[in-house]
Amino acid sequence: MEALNSTELNVIQVGTPEELAVNALKMFVDSANNAIGAKGKFHVAISGGHTPAKFFELLGGTGETGVIQWDRVHLFWVDERCVRPDDEASNYRLAAESFLSKVAIPPGNVHRIHGECCDYAKAVREYEETIRRVFNLAPAQVPEFDLMVLGMGPDGHVGSLFPNSYARFDTEALVSAVYIADGDYSRITLTHPVLRAASKLVILVSGPEKADILRDVMQSELDEVRYPVHTLWPVLDKVTWLVDSEAGKYL
């Protein structure tokens, strides 16, 4: 297997989760302003989980300051659990409560995944159709998001591209269902060609429970089966790791 070149990794280490959130906000605002200035709109995809919660709260404050032209923002999700949008496990709910309710983004610019749909294939198809419509894509074209804000799980997954899941091998579709039968939630996720096509990707990593996996994915040989985040190694020039001191203590 190919060894990793640590010099290719763009890692920004900060002290606290609060500093991580502030830096994530700056990257979001800069990306939004650059994209809107260049083409009049900003396409961004976000993830859920515990790590981005403070960042989302800060995003809610941009409604008053006006640093983001929210009417020019098209918001998508990298992945979603197959639950109702008001469920505590919903990635949409986290965003809705922490910032969407506080900013002037048009409802038509919020493109959530319908995780509550019992027919997962239908939910996948509808989300892919939405992406193709908003981006005005040709049949074989892949969308180029201006920014993706990702987290990384304790097993090295990004989005819902888990180790050994079919979605990690889906290279044709833009969206894939992830069926989980061990009591966890099934998911719907963007596929890795979509992640790789983004103009900029930011991976937020926070907390001591991520220290071991962060060291492993950065120091191990390339292994996309064991560490799905390694699927981003071909586009490392577009990836920024934003890491707090506890998560980065072994780097």
Task: Indicate the topology.
Blueprint: E1 10-13, H1 17-39, E2 42-46, H2 53-60, H3 62-65, E3 73-77, E4 79-81, H4 91-98, E5 110-111, H5 120-135, E6 147-151, E7 175-178, E8 187-190, H6 192-197, E9 201-205, H7 211-219, E10 239-243
Please provide a written account of the structure.
By secondary structure, this protein is α/β, with parallel strands linked by helices. The protein has seven helices and ten strands. It is 29% helix and 17% strand. The strands form two sheets. Strands 1-10-9-6-2-3-5 form a seven-stranded parallel sheet. It has a three-stranded antiparallel sheet with strand order 4-8-7.
Keywords:
seven-stranded parallel beta sheet; globular; Rossmann fold; three-stranded antiparallel beta sheet; 7 helices; 251 residues; alpha/beta
Could you say which overall geometry the principal axes of the C-alpha atoms support? globular
The description of the largest β-sheet is: 7 strands, parallel
Question: What's the total number of strands?
Answer: 10
Distance between the termini: 22 Å
The first-level CATH class is given as Alpha Beta
User: Which ranges are low-confidence, i.e. pLDDT below 50, for 5 or more consecutive residues?
Assistant: none
Number of domains in the coordinates?
Answer: 1
Count helical runs: 7
- Secondary-structure element series: EHEHHEEHEHEEEHEHE
